[in-house]
Amino acid sequence: MQRQGLPVERTLIIAPHPDDDVIAAGGLMQHVLSSGGKLTVVYVTDGENNPWPQRALERRLIIRAEDRRRWGSMRRAEALAALAVLGAPDDASRFLGFPDHRIASLLFRGDRRLEHALATAIDDFDPTLVIMPSHYDLHPDHRAIASFSRRALGSSGLREVRTYLLHGSSVRARVQTVLQLSTSERERKERAILSHRSQLYLSRSRFLTYARRFETFCCEELDLPERRSRVRFFLASLRHVATVLSGPGDQPIRSPREPEAGETPALDPATRHA
Length: 274
Hints:
single chain; globular
């Protein structure tokens, strides 16, 4: 069972927060399910430490621990609603409950609990394809989860891995798979994105830019050296914040030019297709 050369029989998607899965791979998820494949999404955090949207929606300045827990529960429910829109079965989600915006701290402390939790999820599902965050992502949770995912996959013998980058600019030559979406798939992906209502108050336009005619995935990064510099993480985080504050938001990964309807995206000659 292949889609765009990907073995989608058993596809596992690692999402740092609820919403990252549908933004990065809402189209791919539909392809997996329509092909009769099995899907599971591993949500590393509940996205509970999301203060500005919560302050805006709830008209409160102080966010207490119980407020964050309630927000995280709501975001879990939104993730399940989005999966339902895409046609995923009830057992397609796995929530690990690690602390939002604290994953880099776990990495720096040498805490291996997330590595073990991801390895367990991978072993339990036995995927043919893993979709994971990129080490090049500017968001500290995404970068740290890329490192933990790499470690969890290190001894699994898995052959097919793709990465996605949601915060920052992509390297076009690293794009390996381009998945073109039909009009109905784009519309369904948009409805799934709209299920994340808590995120739309401040970021609706940015989120909806991801309901595009194609999704792009980059090559695996399992052989990259570990990026554990606190300074690098801090500078990347500043760049992420500056990008969000200075414009319409982080841009989805693009091919060199967006294709016309029915046209396969053109990639750099150095790009290797899956």
